[in-house]
Amino acid sequence: MRYWQTYDVDDICAVFSDLRLHPQTVRKWIKNGLKITDKGRPALIYGNDLITYLKENNNKNKCKTDFDQLYCPSCQDARHIFENKIHVTQDVQKLSVKGICRTCKKPMYQFYKLSDLSKLRHKFKLVGVSELYDCEHPHGKTHLETITDSTLGESTTGDLFDDKR
Fold first, then answer.
1. Which of 7, 33, 74, 80 could make a disulfide contact with 106, Cβ separation 3.0–4.6 Å?
2. How far apart are CA 110 and CA 145, in angstroms?
């Protein structure tokens, strides 16, 4: 998207083709306040105006949460956690935190960095944390070895197939 280049509705749809943007969506943006160069047809839009419009729309619906709050999709606002109890699970490079909203008692989810685990321990009561990443000094060997006993399952001498009766 070039800053001072003008785009019509079809050009904008072509730029956002990976998102499969529909031309009616761009027309709706124009009705909702996206600036056009003049009242002529086709409607021409500067790249600068489109960039600022999309940034304003994205920031308008964002909700800033404090560290001790999670976003509640049911209440659509930042809420504190019921009884300060959270359930933490580890994804690849992040922690997935689940809590219950104090207001509506529905689940809330948020992601944190792995380095925030000590802060989470300090602020909340952790429930259901796996021991492998919860402990400060994990053991070097975490593999569980199973011992297979070959004498329990099958006969090695072949005495099952003997017809000695």
1. 74
2. 35
